[in-house]
Amino acid sequence: MMNVDVEIKRSGPAGTTAKLVLGVAALVGMFAAADTTFRDLWHVLFTQDRGDTITMLREIRLPREVAGMLVGAALAVSGSLMQGLTRNPLADPGLLGLTAGANCALALTVTMLPHTGYFGVMVACFIGAAGGTVIVLGLGAVKKGGLSPLRLVLAGSAISRFCMRCRTVLGLFSKYPKT
Q: What is the pTM of this model?
Protein backbone atom coordinates (compact mmCIF):
# COMPACT_ATOMS: atom_id res chain seq x y z
CA MET A 1 0.00 0.00 0.00
CA MET A 2 1.31 3.43 -0.93
CA ASN A 3 1.28 6.39 1.45
CA VAL A 4 0.30 9.67 -0.14
CA ASP A 5 0.85 12.88 1.75
CA VAL A 6 -1.79 15.45 0.94
CA GLU A 7 -1.16 19.03 1.88
CA ILE A 8 -4.27 20.91 2.88
CA LYS A 9 -4.10 24.59 2.01
CA ARG A 10 -5.88 26.92 4.33
CA SER A 11 -7.30 30.15 3.01
CA GLY A 12 -6.06 32.35 5.83
CA PRO A 13 -7.83 35.42 7.22
CA ALA A 14 -8.36 37.11 3.84
CA GLY A 15 -9.93 34.02 2.30
CA THR A 16 -12.13 33.44 5.32
CA THR A 17 -13.25 37.06 5.27
CA ALA A 18 -14.03 36.89 1.54
CA LYS A 19 -16.09 33.74 2.03
CA LEU A 20 -17.93 35.31 4.94
CA VAL A 21 -18.69 38.49 2.97
CA LEU A 22 -19.98 36.52 -0.02
CA GLY A 23 -22.12 34.34 2.25
CA VAL A 24 -23.63 37.35 3.98
CA ALA A 25 -24.21 39.03 0.60
CA ALA A 26 -26.06 35.93 -0.60
CA LEU A 27 -28.24 35.92 2.52
CA VAL A 28 -28.95 39.64 2.23
CA GLY A 29 -29.88 39.12 -1.41
CA MET A 30 -32.48 36.58 -0.36
CA PHE A 31 -34.17 38.48 2.46
CA ALA A 32 -35.82 41.50 0.95
CA ALA A 33 -39.26 42.59 -0.25
CA ALA A 34 -39.48 39.92 -2.97
CA ASP A 35 -39.18 36.21 -2.16
CA THR A 36 -36.01 34.76 -3.62
CA THR A 37 -34.24 31.45 -3.17
CA PHE A 38 -30.69 30.17 -3.50
CA ARG A 39 -31.73 28.81 -6.88
CA ASP A 40 -32.58 32.34 -8.04
CA LEU A 41 -29.20 33.57 -6.84
CA TRP A 42 -27.52 30.70 -8.69
CA HIS A 43 -29.36 31.64 -11.89
CA VAL A 44 -28.35 35.28 -11.49
CA LEU A 45 -24.67 34.41 -11.23
CA PHE A 46 -24.31 31.51 -13.65
CA THR A 47 -27.07 31.62 -16.28
CA GLN A 48 -28.58 34.07 -18.74
CA ASP A 49 -32.21 33.56 -17.63
CA ARG A 50 -34.54 36.52 -18.06
CA GLY A 51 -37.29 35.89 -15.49
CA ASP A 52 -38.73 38.77 -13.48
CA THR A 53 -37.08 37.73 -10.22
CA ILE A 54 -33.77 37.02 -11.93
CA THR A 55 -33.81 40.37 -13.73
CA MET A 56 -34.68 42.19 -10.51
CA LEU A 57 -31.81 40.50 -8.69
CA ARG A 58 -29.35 41.07 -11.53
CA GLU A 59 -30.31 44.66 -12.34
CA ILE A 60 -31.19 46.08 -8.92
CA ARG A 61 -29.97 44.08 -5.94
CA LEU A 62 -26.63 42.77 -7.20
CA PRO A 63 -25.27 46.19 -8.27
CA ARG A 64 -26.36 47.72 -4.96
CA GLU A 65 -24.72 44.96 -2.94
CA VAL A 66 -21.49 45.29 -4.92
CA ALA A 67 -21.56 49.09 -4.54
CA GLY A 68 -22.17 48.71 -0.80
CA MET A 69 -19.20 46.36 -0.46
CA LEU A 70 -16.94 48.71 -2.44
CA VAL A 71 -18.01 51.75 -0.41
CA GLY A 72 -17.45 49.81 2.81
CA ALA A 73 -13.98 48.80 1.66
CA ALA A 74 -13.17 52.41 0.70
CA LEU A 75 -14.34 53.66 4.10
CA ALA A 76 -12.25 51.02 5.86
CA VAL A 77 -9.15 52.03 3.90
CA SER A 78 -9.72 55.75 4.50
CA GLY A 79 -10.29 55.20 8.22
CA SER A 80 -7.15 53.11 8.44
CA LEU A 81 -5.14 55.79 6.62
CA MET A 82 -6.51 58.49 8.90
CA GLN A 83 -5.66 56.48 12.01
CA GLY A 84 -2.17 55.81 10.71
CA LEU A 85 -1.57 59.43 9.69
CA THR A 86 -2.60 60.84 13.06
CA ARG A 87 -1.37 57.85 15.09
CA ASN A 88 -4.70 57.95 16.86
CA PRO A 89 -6.93 54.85 17.03
CA LEU A 90 -9.97 57.10 17.51
CA ALA A 91 -9.32 59.28 14.45
CA ASP A 92 -12.30 60.46 12.46
CA PRO A 93 -12.86 62.80 9.49
CA GLY A 94 -13.50 65.71 11.85
CA LEU A 95 -9.86 65.64 12.96
CA LEU A 96 -8.62 66.62 9.50
CA GLY A 97 -11.29 69.19 8.68
CA LEU A 98 -13.18 67.02 6.18
CA THR A 99 -16.58 67.24 7.85
CA ALA A 100 -16.40 70.93 8.64
CA GLY A 101 -15.12 71.81 5.16
CA ALA A 102 -17.97 69.93 3.51
CA ASN A 103 -20.48 71.46 5.92
CA CYS A 104 -19.20 74.98 5.26
CA ALA A 105 -19.31 74.42 1.49
CA LEU A 106 -22.87 73.12 1.81
CA ALA A 107 -23.98 76.20 3.73
CA LEU A 108 -22.19 78.50 1.28
CA THR A 109 -23.74 76.79 -1.75
CA VAL A 110 -27.28 76.70 -0.35
CA THR A 111 -27.05 80.32 0.82
CA MET A 112 -25.37 81.89 -2.20
CA LEU A 113 -26.73 79.63 -4.96
CA PRO A 114 -30.13 78.44 -3.69
CA HIS A 115 -31.20 76.89 -7.01
CA THR A 116 -28.19 74.59 -7.30
CA GLY A 117 -29.19 71.03 -8.08
CA TYR A 118 -28.39 67.94 -6.06
CA PHE A 119 -25.28 67.10 -8.09
CA GLY A 120 -23.94 70.65 -7.79
CA VAL A 121 -24.37 70.57 -4.02
CA MET A 122 -22.54 67.23 -3.81
CA VAL A 123 -19.66 68.58 -5.91
CA ALA A 124 -19.47 71.68 -3.70
CA CYS A 125 -19.37 69.50 -0.57
CA PHE A 126 -16.61 67.36 -2.06
CA ILE A 127 -14.59 70.46 -2.95
CA GLY A 128 -15.17 71.87 0.55
CA ALA A 129 -14.01 68.63 2.21
CA ALA A 130 -10.94 68.45 -0.02
CA GLY A 131 -10.19 72.14 0.57
CA GLY A 132 -10.47 71.79 4.33
CA THR A 133 -8.14 68.81 4.28
CA VAL A 134 -5.58 70.57 2.07
CA ILE A 135 -5.57 73.59 4.39
CA VAL A 136 -5.13 71.34 7.44
CA LEU A 137 -2.28 69.44 5.80
CA GLY A 138 -0.69 72.73 4.73
CA LEU A 139 -0.91 74.22 8.22
CA GLY A 140 0.35 70.99 9.76
CA ALA A 141 3.43 70.98 7.52
CA VAL A 142 4.34 74.68 7.81
CA LYS A 143 7.01 74.14 10.43
CA LYS A 144 10.46 72.82 9.67
CA GLY A 145 9.91 69.27 10.96
CA GLY A 146 7.13 68.51 8.48
CA LEU A 147 3.92 66.79 9.46
CA SER A 148 3.57 65.67 13.03
CA PRO A 149 0.41 64.06 14.42
CA LEU A 150 0.03 66.72 17.11
CA ARG A 151 0.28 69.65 14.67
CA LEU A 152 -2.07 67.86 12.29
CA VAL A 153 -4.73 67.40 14.97
CA LEU A 154 -4.34 70.99 16.21
CA ALA A 155 -4.59 72.40 12.67
CA GLY A 156 -7.60 70.18 12.01
CA SER A 157 -9.30 71.38 15.16
CA ALA A 158 -8.65 75.03 14.28
CA ILE A 159 -9.90 74.69 10.70
CA SER A 160 -12.95 72.73 11.86
CA ARG A 161 -13.85 75.47 14.32
CA PHE A 162 -13.32 78.17 11.69
CA CYS A 163 -15.49 76.37 9.11
CA MET A 164 -18.23 75.75 11.66
CA ARG A 165 -18.24 79.42 12.64
CA CYS A 166 -18.46 80.42 8.97
CA ARG A 167 -21.40 78.06 8.59
CA THR A 168 -23.08 79.61 11.63
CA VAL A 169 -22.61 83.13 10.25
CA LEU A 170 -24.02 82.07 6.88
CA GLY A 171 -26.99 80.51 8.64
CA LEU A 172 -27.68 83.67 10.61
CA PHE A 173 -27.58 85.91 7.57
CA SER A 174 -29.63 83.59 5.39
CA LYS A 175 -32.51 83.45 7.90
CA TYR A 176 -33.18 87.16 7.63
CA PRO A 177 -32.63 88.23 4.02
CA LYS A 178 -32.33 91.95 3.34
CA THR A 179 -35.30 93.31 1.38
A: 0.65
